[in-house]
Design goal:
By secondary structure, the protein is mainly α. Helices cover 51% and strands 7% of the residues. A 3-stranded antiparallel sheet has the order 5-6-7, covered by helices on one side. The chain has a two-stranded antiparallel sheet with strand order 1-2. The structure holds glycine.
């Protein structure tokens, strides 16, 4: 499909060069990192959080979201230079080996979400060789267990292949495949590179629609893994665009580009970004699905912070002469500025997380107004990208 044809209808909203004041960014960093640490002390430093609406309760390392919890401490360490954050991440590392040895909830597509922002990040920050080996093991596991060699995609739930609904792939996987790209770079094993590129190709052909919107899931036949149709899981309807799923694409496409240099990916990314920008409400923070632009539906602030990181990542590869670059920068500042003002810090409501009004899984009536580690992590990543543009990415 030809990409890069989408025009931005809301051009005027993103014209000019709005920037969040530096002092506001510093205050946001201080308030977020202080809160991260005080909640960790209450949970127990080496424990993990389970989201219970506005609260976190302590649990073991057993969820797709937990890699981003450890990653939040590594980001906080890089933001502040304070070693106490690194010590928290260090105290959590043994749980990733245990999780791999015992295969605790690693029987699906989200192994990248677990091991990239935790173990690859820890290796990049500390150079710890044993953690590098563990991350390579995680890549092998994702490849052996969840990558369909027949279909060329990462399967949603490889453990129930006879279940029709499990024979799907999804937008979220754009943020799992950096595990494959990284493992290819580290080991030279071509199978990882080919698998990652195959997932990108399927995302481009089957999950991304011509107007820059996206399906959440794509259904394949049992057995043959032949393509069937686009469907949803966490979105409003099959033909709508679930905002967090779309955000996983907006952040994942430029990361994939950084590994494979396919120029079509930047055009695909631009189409996805323009679709998002044309569907943002007045305060620049998405509702849970882009079917909604105003009204009382739940927001998903995590979709905003994830997307901000994707906008800033793409700016690294665009020449200053590209008109979209100025649009991306202004949009990133407006979106993050609204998060700082209206969704983070002291907003008069008690949330254990750093960012309020995250939507979990609205169709399942689960977590309609919650905090979650993916909101926290990408908020800190966005703050780090704004304040240290040469930051060495974890993904
Ligand atoms: N990976 C599922 C989600 O974003 O909720």
């Amino acid at each position: 499909m030809t990409r890069g044809n989408i025009q931005l209808a809301s051009n005027e909203r993103f014209a000019g060069s709005y920037e969040i004041p530096a002092e506001k960014l510093q205050q946001a960093i201080k308030s977020a990192t202080d809160k991260l640490y005080s909640v960790a002390e209450r949970l127990g430093i080496s424990n993990f959080p389970a989201s219970r609406n506005k609260s976190y309760i302590p649990c073991e390392n057993n969820n797709w979201t937990h890699g981003m919890y450890t990653g939040s401490f590594l980001l906080a360490y890089e933001l502040t230079g304070d070693k106490k954050f690194l010590e928290v991440a260090t105290s959590q590392m043994a749980s990733y080996q245990k999780r791999m040895d015992e295969k605790i909830k690693l029987d699906d597509h989200d192994v990248g979400f677990v091991y990239v922002p935790s173990c690859i990040a820890y290796y990049k920050v500390t150079g710890d060789e044993s953690i590098r080996q563990l991350a390579i093991e995680a890549a092998e596991h994702l490849y052996d267990y969840s990558f369909s060699k027949k279909g060329g995609f990462v399967i949603r739930s490889a453990w129930r292949l006879q279940d029709y609904d499990a024979n799907r792939t999804m937008m979220d996987t754009m943020m799992n495949i950096p595990l494959f790209y990284w493992a290819w770079q580290e080991t030279g094993d071509q199978k990882f590179y080919d698998a990652a590129n195959s997932q990108v190709d399927i995302t481009e052909r089957l999950l991304m629609r011509a107007d820059g919107s996206s399906y959440h899931h794509y259904q394949f036949e049992i057995g043959t893994h032949a393509p069937v149709k686009g469907v949803t899981f966490q979105g409003h309807r099959d033909e709508s665009t679930w905002s967090r799923g779309h955000a996983w694409g907006i952040s994942g496409f430029p990361i994939a580009y950084s590994y494979n240099n396919d120029p079509n990916l930047l055009l695909l990314h631009r189409d996805a970004v323009y679709y998002m920008l044309d569907h943002l409400p007045e305060d620049f923070v998405p509702y849970w699905d882009y079917d909604f632009i105003s009204g009382d539906e739940p927001r998903d602030s995590s979709a905003a912070v994830i997307s901000v990181c994707g906008l800033l990542e793409a700016c690294k590869y665009l020449p200053d002469s590209a008109p979209e670059k100025a649009i991306y920068k202004t949009a990133a500042h407006k979106m993050l500025g609204s998060i700082i003002d209206n969704y983070a810090g002291d907003i008069g409501e008690p949330y254990d997380g750093l960012v309020a009004h995250v939507a979990g899984a609205v169709p399942m009536n689960s977590g309609l107004d919650m905090c979650a580690t993916y909101g926290d992590f990408f908020y800190l990543e966005a703050l780090l990208r704004f304040t240290k543009p040469d930051w060495k990415r974890y993904w």
